[in-house]
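Q: How do we represent a protein-ligand complex in a form that can be generated token by token?
A: Start from the inputs.
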Amino acid sequence: MEETVRDRVLGILEDLGEEFETFKSKLSEIQLQAGFGNIPWSTLRVAGPRALTEELLSWSKDENGVEVTRKVLRAINQEDLAARLTKTTGSGGSNPDQESETHQDPEMVGEELLKERKRALQDLLVTLKMEQHRSMKLGLKDLQEINQENLQNWIPWALEDLPWHFMRKVMALNGTARNTSLGQRAPGDQASGEENGGQGDGGNVLHHSNMDVRASLNPLDVLCAVLLCSDSFLQQEILLKMSMCQFALPLLLPALDTPKCTLMLWAMRAIVRKWRPHSLAESRRFIEESLVLTSMPTVSFVRMGSCSFSKSKLLNEVLSPSQQHHDFFIHRDMESGNVPREVADGLVEISWYFPGGNESSDLFPEPVAVTNLRGDIESHWLRFSFLTEVSSAVFIVTESISERQYALLSSLLGSATEYYFILGAQAEKYSQTLGFLSKLAPVLKLNKLNVLEKSNTTNQTEFVENLQHTIRSIMNSSNKRVNIEAMATAARELGVLVDEDCEECQSGSKWAREITMNMRDVSNCKTEMLKLQGDLWKTLTKVEKELCRMKEQGTVPPEDYKVQLKEKLSELHAQQNNCELNDGLIKFINGLEQLTAVEKHHFLKWLKYKLDHIAKDEHARLQAQYNALAGDPQKLEELGEFISAGSLGVEHFLRELGQLYEAEHAMVKEGKMAEIEKQFTRLPGIAADLMLEGFPMELIDGDASNIPLQWMTDVLTQLHVKLGEKSRMLVLTVLGVQSTGKSTLLNTMFSLQFAVSSGQSTHGAFMSLIKVAENFREDLGCDFILVIDTEGLKAPEPAKLEDSYQHDNELATLVIGLSDITIVDMAMTENVTEMKNVLQIMVHAFLRIKEIRQNPQCLFVHHNVRDMSAHGQNMRDRKHLLEQLDEMTKAAAKMEKLHKEVTFLDIMDYDPVIQDWYLPSLWHGVPPMAPVNLQYSESVGKLKKHLFQLIRIHSVEIPPKNIPQFTEWMKSLWNALKHENFCFSFRNPLATEAYNQLSAKFSELAWEFQKKMHLWLSEQETFIQNQAPEELETEIFTQLSRETQQKLQHEEDKIFECLEKYIKDGASGTYMLEIKEDFIRSSKSTTSTFHHYSHQQLERAKNNRKRHCRYYNSEAEFRKIIEQEVDKLLEDCRSRERKLNNEELEREFQAMWRGVLSESMLFSSMKQTIFQEMQSLLEEDLEIRGRLMHQEAGSLLHYSMSSFTMKKEHLDLAWSETLKELFTKENWLKAEELATSLMRQCSAYIDEKANSKADYDEIYCRELLCMINERLQQEDVSKLHTSSCFEVDLKFHILGEAAHVFQEIHDNFMKETDPQKSQKKLKLQYFSILKDLYLDKEVSHKRARDFCDQCLKPALVDYMNKRLGIAIADDILRSGQSIDYSSRGFFQFTTQKKLLEENDFYNYVRYIENYEDFVKTWIQRHLVDHYSENEGLEDLEKEILSTVIDRVRGTLENSKDKSNTVLAFTDNFCKVLQKDLVISKDSLVGIRFINTVNTGKFIAFIQTSLSHLEQQILAEFKNLETESKLSLLSVKPQDEIFKRVFGCGKQCPFCNVPCEAAGTDHKEHFASVHRPQGLGTYRCIETNILAYELCSSAVISNYIFQCPETQWKDHPFKDYRAIFPSWCIQPDPSINTSDYWKFVFKEFNQEFAERYHAEPADLPGDWEKITKEQALESLEEAFKMK
Ligand SMILES: Nc1nc2c(ncn2[C@@H]2O[C@H](COP(=O)(O)OP(=O)(O)OP(=O)(O)O)[C@@H](O)[C@H]2O)c(=O)[nH]1
Ligand SMILES: [Mg+2]
Ligand SMILES: [Zn+2]
Ligand SMILES: [Zn+2]
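Then emit the structure tokens for the protein with zinc ion bound:
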């Protein structure tokens, strides 16, 4: 008999029962939406099922009516009826069922239905705005990315927010993740207002509730949509977190995008559960196992037909621990649980019960799985079949059984599963149902116990208990135990898909299996497969640390001991490198290199699971042994260690790669392997890729307590490249007691994947990179966040106290040092001492980090706080904590040997209100059944928000480091940590960078200042030279000095201003502030030097001018007379009648000339005796200084430097009488050295003056005396106890030598200006003038030429010499050349590199013995070379000359109309240019007659000859050798450059290496590399053999030294600062740092010995092997030139 559509609709409406009213109300709502002709509410309200059927079907076409009915049914959560309607009324004759109506052909899907479901899915995804992720799956990274939303609360406002809300919350372990109700907007908010307005007729309660429902989605739909749009790894993560929240997990995902439903095996792989079955209750052991591998009985719950009570709710009650209800499954009474499901029908969920080992409270004695099928089994027969396959028992929940259903159930005949029926109350069909049941009894082997009745009157608690009891008995009787892997097999047989069957996953699994296939156990794998990281790496670590600590040095000299250790290192590297690559590792590497990204990801996950499995098995076995051994403490401990060494993970494989890489690198570096033989160069790139994909990377190996620095550096460098070099990272770390949930905290906060749970506790430290969204980077101030998870700090056991404390200390210092923000996890453990010990370690670490001037930000997280109100509790506790922290700080300061009072607040800005955070315990209840505490999740969320606020503020103050900076920083920290004295050994790379930047800036500013002042002084000097001597004694000169001081002050202020500004704008922030003082001081010292210098310059100019005048006065006098006479003669001649011819005129002139000469005193002895002048100056000086001059001293001329020898009287022997002879000898040598160096310095000065071509000046002598006095007053000299006789002798010899030279200078000068010569010249000139005048010639051009030649040209040349030096220095310091001179370090590098290239002993000697001289020559040579190579110098000359000539032109132009006479013109001309040109118009011959010439013509002539004059001067300059040109300059560029690179001039007290600190006045002297001390002439006093110790090694060794400063007493090197407080000598940053000087020493050992009159050093054999290339490399490394 055929049912009509009408019958079916009616049947369904009748079946609705109580829900019929709901149906009607929903219908009215839907009608409104549909918008076309509808059934009025008045009709609806009274209509019964039959009437409504008519209405519905007549409403429009039949089909539409059916459609509407179905929609409404779904909307009121009557999916089953809706499905039935579809099934029975489907059109087109095709089979419309979802998964077929018959069980024979379960997956035959009707096209129509398929379409409809596709549409439903499509609609859902559109609503959720997730369509694009259907193909482009979401990954974990999308969730990790940090964006604006991290700062907001996640309240879903629109449906499209729901998936994100779910994912975010579930990632944060938030129990409310599944809630799908939307946030209520504030009233008046338009979005909700509109809908309300549309409603129109209020008053219907039902109506409203439905309205609310509509504004949401069923959580299961959201879950399905999210899983559909996620990649398989995100799915895993979501399921993992859901499982922690104790949410039921999807076991079978409905067929959404796939033809069939899917078993979520892979998605559950990551879940590990821990429990204690009752069988183990005694032993107190836990079982920890991967969930998918755990076999247990499974009980399934399905529904048939409709049911009045919620099956899911019932299940929740069955599974909930007593006293604590938890919603494992979503049920219809939950928030939005009643919203109709759009796509989630047919979902099978699974949940578990795990016992905690407490027999009285556990519900079940062993684990049991419970599955729950959503929907009616009739529509989901395939799933139902699957469940019957895998379950021990299936509970069918139903209210009635119909004929059809009976038929269906009958087909289960022969099924192996037990069936139970839970009958809901439905009186009408009760008897019919019972009838069917009894018919089914034999088919399904039912008995009375298999039917549970649940009527309205049943006591719920009793019913649940009953059910639990039934399940228990099923567990007892059935021995069917399946795990999810086994379920997958069953599924495949039924044609259900399994997510693991995808290609990538299978290939990943295959690769992993190949590695683990032959692995027997963990220790076997470690010794066979991972050889490099075992004992080899641990021994290596020990040796590396010993190299820095030298604890077992004994009596071996430090350098030799270092060589021994180095050899050991090299040997170990070789051993590592020689290890055969085994199969497993090769496969691992191949896997990483060859697989696609997704495959690789699968591969690594698989490897992890498989390794975990192996390790767990072993762990369990060992644990059993351990328990058995209970009596024997010795063995227990051994086994305990064994157990802790038993972890094995992918990180061990990666670690092995790191070791392979390190070893290979070391081999190449040691020259034992060629660069091209390298095999592992691609590994760092691969590791960087892994980091990008979210794998945590091992930073510190917790087993060996070491960092593979090269590996780490190269991995991070690769990472930097892969990030497009945009890698500013904020570093965040967590630190705290062991196993307190640190990793869990980070994972919860940032969705990371750090290893958690006791089985795989963190070892060492791992880091994970999180991306900040592009549009959020600006705001947050960084591009990435690097999260570091660390191993818990242990409370040291007494036996291993030292080691453990050290390990923890290193770890804590390193990570705190690396971090911008540190979270200190202060779990409230029961053990107070443990907490205290750990705090002590942390405080110590913070103190050290503060000492190296890093400002750690820190948050204290008080974890496991039971009562959340506790934090408000009382200030007393806090005060108490602070007191304790202070105590700890004090103790730490003592350990660090800081001799100062420090409190905790000194090392950290600690504000309990902001910095103390309280977290409740992770679990709500007792694990394993406890879900995550909602409070925990929410507190973590708040903490996270706070962290981001902190980061925003922090990154403004201290810009985050990028990867290269981070790497450098890490290396420095680690290197320093290897040393005993961390703070002292730390070389701060960022501060160094800031320092270098600042010193470059400072040099630039200093030069700018000097240049301005030089120019200024040169103008003033010119001005002085243009004044009459008597003018200079007046106010004019004082005025000049005053102006100069003002100018200085002005420029000085400018320097400070610029420095301040630069520091303020500087990116290096705080570091610059720290070192600012040094530079301010240096600026001050530079300017004050200039104060002195400028004063001197002005004085000198004045003196010169006076001397000049004195000398020229007589000549001027003479010329005046001559000119008078010429005038007379002219008159005379003109008055004669006859015109004289040329000879007659000459005769007359001759007579006149002779007459004048005989009368004049001209050119008599103008020569001075310089030495007498000097002698009197010397006597004056000695008198002032109260030194007695010996009687027999005699004339200065008897002394010279070469004749100086040391005499007994030179030392104050009375003082040293009591001391050893040794002391005297040493002092003698030192005094001699002092004398030599002083003489060298003075002779350099004398030479310079000799070259300058200027006449002698008294100031020379004064300056020499000043130099000597300054040197003798220095501190180190006073310690030598020299006598005053020494001083007197020294001065005599030096000035004696100088006197000879100066006399010569003067004599030469006089010769140049030979009176005879000038006399002759004058004579010719005057005769010519006379002739011209007599003949009345037009002579203006002649006079003008004279003016050009005699006045203008010398002035221009002088100008050039004054300016060229400044210009050259400026050119060099500002051009590309300046890089060599940009900093002292750079200069050292360039010179040393060049020295190495030339490899010439004498060059080295000059460099070492007379650094200053070396530098000067070096610069000079460089200048000469530079300018002989190119036209640069000519350009400079042209520029200088053309500037001044332009000025001359301008002046000429201006004077044209103003001056009537030539004299007036010249006066004016000189006056205008008196600051530029020294024009001595007095020296113009025939000045008296000049007025007779035509002014206009005179000027015009000068104008036209200017360019000729310019060419002439340039040509003359061009012809000069560069060197002699340089010697003529008044400001010597080489001196200016020298000042920049020479610095303070101090040398290391042990090895004489020059100080590299910037400026001239700094607190500390330092050098990047020290030299073997023998190069500084150090030798063994007894044997006279040169010493080869390095200062940088000595300071960490047990060596001692003696020197005058220690009064020749022994002093430990480690404590050298007590003697030389201003020197900072740090240990070498790497073992190769000093290779350069070692190389030099071994090359020239013999030569140095001869030179120093000593025996050659007995160098360690290892030094012989150092090559030139290695030397260069070490140099590049030391000065960071790579
Ligand atoms: N009771 C309780 N257990 C927690 C809490 N937080 C984490 N755990 C559990 O403690 C165990 C260890 O957690 P981890 O996150 O690995 O702890 P950890 O501090 O990183 O451990 P180590 O790295 O070994 O020092 C896990 O099983 C967590 O589930 C908590 O607040 N309360
Ligand atoms: Mg951890
Ligand atoms: Zn030194
Ligand atoms: Zn210095």
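DSSP finds 66 helices and 20 strands in the chain. The pocket of zinc ion (ligand 4) is lined by residues 1543-1544, 1546, 1555, 1557, 1562, 1565 (CB under 6 Å).
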